[in-house]
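Researcher: Please generate the 3D structure of the following complex. Treat every line as part of one assembly.
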Amino acid sequence: MDLFEVIAEPNRRAILSALLDGNRSVGELVDELPLSQPTVSKHLKVLRTGGFVAAEPVAQRRMYRLQPEQFAEFARWLEPYRATWAGRLDALESHLDDMEDT
Amino acid sequence: MDLFEVIAEPNRRAILSALLDGNRSVGELVDELPLSQPTVSKHLKVLRTGGFVAAEPVAQRRMYRLQPEQFAEFARWLEPYRATWAGRLDALESHLDDMEDT
DNA sequence: GATTAATATGCCTTGACACGTATATTGCTA
DNA sequence: TAGCAATATACGTGTCAAGGCATATTAATC
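Model: Done. Output below.
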């Protein structure tokens, strides 16, 4: 599942949004979302595999936290479009420079 | 269909990417993509409805172009996460300021 | 080691959507 | 207005992912 599909799911974005507010256990997320525990766990697996979150065991719980680097991928995709809407040619140029490098 | 679902589809992203390179008619996009004409037209409809592209009739053709403002929605969504990955608290603060305004 | 708590996985059902073929629509041209 | 070119819509089909329920796993405690 690619990056875009991972964040296309509204409940997964809700999980990410909740984690912005601080780290959460699975149970805490279940309390905040209108989803069953297994469904939340599955979404977390997708987010983990996609690199958006990481889990740290604390006793029987697993504390989930954002893994911000992954969001940079999305930012990179957005960059050339950002350049056009902002009318900022510098961003577009840096994008083209990046492409020349490869 | 929400914004994130619109860009979740790889062929739709390919269309957007092609339009970065310059405006295109439907037929030109069909030539560049491994898709039938009806499928391309349907993707364009989704992109149009979502506000990512706009069409201008030129004789029988319709020239499609990017509508960059829509991409700013993603930037807004990304902003608080960007703040965490960059360690830049200023961006996070401006996000929180925005929330206070509403 | 049995019990309970917390989380993960398996299985199944359902709904959404991407696709192609066929056809309708729109607009130009002869 | 007949015919052709370009694009859009209708319809049917297949795939895939999200959801819940049931169950397995992992970890603490008694």
